[in-house]
């Protein structure tokens, strides 16, 4: 049985990154098989329930008010419109529905409205996830009481690169929110973005910070920067695709029991690159035509990819701590993969 470590050293992660590519893939794939069926992939659908107009200055983000990206600020969506999207996501084969809001943090008066969305989405038989910015302890408990299964809050990058990307909140603020989420008994979804101009050492630093959290995140989204015109990071040199695969592989090795999600950036990836990511231990995706404001592969492309690779959507699994991972297998995507 693999011991879950929380004391990873930067040199150890760099030594993994430095392995010959086939050796790194072999180690990651072996770790993957110890804990998961490598043919199964968890599928989540995202919906932006409150888009744009965000006061923060995250240099990658199309929703920051201060950048001119063409994203129009909208109010919080009405419950019925959210439920229509959730039903459609379920019908297309998603098992988890993640609601995102372009907030620095929710106002207390927003919480009852979001709580209602969570209750109703859960009642459809979907797992629920939300990403609303920083949470106080009380807010985290209120969301948990509404039935929220996962909270997404990313570290985004290594502590030493963070100041180049975000100036309106501290790394410690993120760690505090994650602590509130864990204390409330919710599962954490926490990862970051690569391809922002960081060095390999800083990519290792992100994974080190994630793996050395008091508990490994249940889901680890690894986003490849989606470059949006108008954001400061538009025009950043593209990351070598093999370096992206290495990042997935090292994440799999250091967080062996977590879902490693091949997240933003898939639309511009070839099928072959995605296949390498699955071979390197990625076992979760965002599924559906849209992420929050940018595109994602369409459902037909993903169903065809699953079929060609012999992958199938993951069913709900209950681990030894009573945590479930994944969701119900849905007929459409199973048929497509058959
Ligand atoms: N406003 C909340 C927050 O920042 O926590 C929740 C939504 S925010 C859009 C969620 C995450 O999306 C960010 O932490 C970042 O990792 C990711 N993200 C945003 N823009 C991105 C982009 N252009 N490319 C890749 N990932 C992105
Ligand atoms: C995460 O790590 N990636 C998702 C989700 N968590 C909320 C968001 C990706 C956003 C990509 C840019 C956009 O669509 O606005
Ligand atoms: Fe706002 Fe979140 Fe975008 Fe940062 S990542 S600008 S907090 S919506």
Automatic annotation (TrEMBL):
<keyword id="KW-0093">Biotin biosynthesis</keyword>
<comment type="function">
    <text>Catalyzes the conversion of dethiobiotin (DTB) to biotin by the insertion of a sulfur atom into dethiobiotin via a radical-based mechanism.</text>
</comment>
<feature type="domain" description="Radical SAM core">
    <location>
        <begin position="39"/>
        <end position="266"/>
    </location>
</feature>
<feature type="binding site">
    <location>
        <position position="98"/>
    </location>
    <ligand>
        <name>[2Fe-2S] cluster</name>
    </ligand>
</feature>
<keyword id="KW-0411">Iron-sulfur</keyword>
<feature type="binding site">
    <location>
        <position position="189"/>
    </location>
    <ligand>
        <name>[2Fe-2S] cluster</name>
    </ligand>
</feature>
<dbReference type="GO" id="GO:0051537">
    <property type="term" value="F:2 iron, 2 sulfur cluster binding"/>
</dbReference>
<dbReference type="Pfam" id="PF04055">
    <property type="entry name" value="Radical_SAM"/>
</dbReference>
<comment type="pathway">
    <text>Cofactor biosynthesis; biotin biosynthesis; biotin from 7,8-diaminononanoate: step 2/2.</text>
</comment>
<feature type="binding site">
    <location>
        <position position="61"/>
    </location>
    <ligand>
        <name>[4Fe-4S] cluster</name>
    </ligand>
</feature>
<feature type="binding site">
    <location>
        <position position="58"/>
    </location>
    <ligand>
        <name>[4Fe-4S] cluster</name>
    </ligand>
</feature>
<feature type="binding site">
    <location>
        <position position="129"/>
    </location>
    <ligand>
        <name>[2Fe-2S] cluster</name>
    </ligand>
</feature>
<keyword id="KW-0408">Iron</keyword>
<dbReference type="InterPro" id="IPR058240">
    <property type="entry name" value="rSAM_sf"/>
</dbReference>
<comment type="subunit">
    <text>Homodimer.</text>
</comment>
<dbReference type="Pfam" id="PF06968">
    <property type="entry name" value="BATS"/>
</dbReference>
<dbReference type="InterPro" id="IPR007197">
    <property type="entry name" value="rSAM"/>
</dbReference>
<dbReference type="GO" id="GO:0004076">
    <property type="term" value="F:biotin synthase activity"/>
</dbReference>
<dbReference type="InterPro" id="IPR006638">
    <property type="entry name" value="Elp3/MiaA/NifB-like_rSAM"/>
</dbReference>
<keyword id="KW-0808">Transferase</keyword>
<keyword id="KW-0001">2Fe-2S</keyword>
<dbReference type="GO" id="GO:0009102">
    <property type="term" value="P:biotin biosynthetic process"/>
</dbReference>
<protein>
    <recommendedName>
        <fullName>Biotin synthase</fullName>
        <ecNumber>2.8.1.6</ecNumber>
    </recommendedName>
</protein>
<dbReference type="GO" id="GO:0051539">
    <property type="term" value="F:4 iron, 4 sulfur cluster binding"/>
</dbReference>
<dbReference type="InterPro" id="IPR002684">
    <property type="entry name" value="Biotin_synth/BioAB"/>
</dbReference>
<keyword id="KW-0949">S-adenosyl-L-methionine</keyword>
<dbReference type="InterPro" id="IPR024177">
    <property type="entry name" value="Biotin_synthase"/>
</dbReference>
<keyword id="KW-0004">4Fe-4S</keyword>
<feature type="binding site">
    <location>
        <position position="261"/>
    </location>
    <ligand>
        <name>[2Fe-2S] cluster</name>
    </ligand>
</feature>
<feature type="binding site">
    <location>
        <position position="54"/>
    </location>
    <ligand>
        <name>[4Fe-4S] cluster</name>
    </ligand>
</feature>
<dbReference type="InterPro" id="IPR013785">
    <property type="entry name" value="Aldolase_TIM"/>
</dbReference>
<dbReference type="GO" id="GO:0005506">
    <property type="term" value="F:iron ion binding"/>
</dbReference>
<keyword id="KW-0479">Metal-binding</keyword>
<comment type="similarity">
    <text>Belongs to the radical SAM superfamily. Biotin synthase family.</text>
</comment>
<dbReference type="InterPro" id="IPR010722">
    <property type="entry name" value="BATS_dom"/>
</dbReference>
